[in-house]
């Protein structure tokens, strides 16, 4: 617990900077949503990008545009790996690693790691 709190403090927890970064990202998110002018759209990618941008901004001091191809590809890979890691195939692989060659999920996760 002590380690976690000291590490988070090093990254600015409890300081005004994190709040400023979150506020800035919220205003970008709001402007992006307003561009749809009441038309239906999928919020999944935009919300994932906003949350990821806050984390990246705290850790790296940089934010990405929502249309950035590299950023969108990384979001897709992370999302895919999260879905695969909870799949029945991945759970089987965790219990029986020798089945890895038979399971598509482990190959796909390994490919995404590269």
Automatic annotation (TrEMBL):
SUPFAM superfamilies with a match to the protein in the record: Cytochrome P450 (SSF48264)
Keywords, ordered alphabetically: Iron, Metal-binding
Pfam name, any one: p450
A GO MF term: oxidoreductase activity, acting on paired donors, with incorporation or reduction of molecular oxygen, reduced flavin or flavoprotein as one donor, and incorporation of one atom of oxygen
Entry annotated with the keyword Ubl conjugation: no
InterPro entries: Cyt_P450, Cyt_P450_sf, Cytochrome_P450_fam2
Alphabetical GO biological process terms: organic acid metabolic process; xenobiotic metabolic process
GO CC annotations on file: cytoplasm
Top-level taxon of origin: Eukaryota
Gene3D superfamilies per the UniProt record, alphabetical: Cytochrome P450
Family as reported in the entry's similarity comment: Belongs to the cytochrome P450 family.
Name recorded for this polypeptide: Uncharacterized protein
Organismal lineage: Eukaryota, Metazoa, Chordata, Craniata, Vertebrata
């Amino acid at each position: 617990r002590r380690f976690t709190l000291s590490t988070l403090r090093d990254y600015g927890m409890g300081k005004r900077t994190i709040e400023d970064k979150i506020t800035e990202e919220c205003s970008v998110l709001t402007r992006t949503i307003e561009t749809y002018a009441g038309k239906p759209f999928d919020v999944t990618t935009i919300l994932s990008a906003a949350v990821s941008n806050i984390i990246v901004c705290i850790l790296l001091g940089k934010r990405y545009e929502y249309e950035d191809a590299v950023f969108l590809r990384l979001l897709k890979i992370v999302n895919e790996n999260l879905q695969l890691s909870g799949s029945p195939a991945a759970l089987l692989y965790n219990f029986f690693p020798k089945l890895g060659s038979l399971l598509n999920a482990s190959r796909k996760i390994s490919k995404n790691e590269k």
